[in-house]
Amino acid sequence: MMPEKEKWKLFMELQTLEDCGVGIWIEGQVSNPENVMQTITVNEESDYMRDYIFKEGVLQEIHFDKITNQ
Fold this sequence. Notes:
By secondary structure, the chain is an alpha+beta fold.
């Protein structure tokens, strides 16, 4: 189980990015910091990869995609 401190650290990081205009996505859907935090902490047996989307050197979006072993 992810410690509460780590959950809120993730939430605050994502909230700061969202406040700066960065779009947040999870599994191909537009999302928000709270939803990402809940999804990642509920699915602890799954790993999520971050994908940073830049346009002209400026961070535009951050995507969280579940890593699956095939």
